[in-house]
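ok so I'm stuck.
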Amino acid sequence: MKKKILVLLCAAVLCSCSSKDKNTDDSGRASYGCRTIDYFDYTGVIPETSAVDEYWFSDALFLGDIRVSSLLNYSSLEEEGADVHYIPGLELDTFETAYAETYDGNASLSEILMNTDKQNVFLMIGLNDAAQSDFTVWRRKVKQLITDFQKKHSRASLYLILPYHVAELDGVPADELQERIDEIRDVMMSLGSELKVYCLDSGKAVEGDDGIVDENYVWDGIRLNQDGTDALMDYISRHVVREELYVRKVCS
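replied:
not stuck anymore, here's the structure
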């Protein structure tokens, strides 16, 4: 009799231990936990993948300075359903105050950004801000802009388009220009890593061997012409992040 009781006690202990290794649902059936893991390396720029088709851009928004005008004038983004808006001479301080010339009505780029229903958002900012010599405040403001957007659009993908290097820029000493552009790019990269947003290196699409935008790609030193726009759009189409490549659901 004692032996039978001992066997029953052991069996009960084993059952209670094993039940702790898994969860049960309301019906009492075993269930296992799953989690989503993002494998993208936010410390670097977006690596090349196969090009997306033109329909991908129907869910895209492009905002920024005068460089965005080239995307509006020389690409088929609008025809594909993308929203494209810009402000000439845009600096971060005017992102919230100046009205976008391309918008039907009075709206700042900040308002357009916060109210968009597009899921792939590209910001082409920073070049005119090279007139500053200290980017501490600029970084803080861009961080706040990104944070506010992410709070309202938690499922959207945000892309920071790193500025390509230009030979001249009003208000910036020639011997300091490239260093300042590099600083802006570094700030954007650090924000990408910290806030988990994507950084796209436009310089790899349009810069020459000297590290400056190819003169054959621009018609005023800054704005891209048709060839430059084609090169940049081809680059963007091969450097977007698709969830199926970097996100995995792991269950155990």
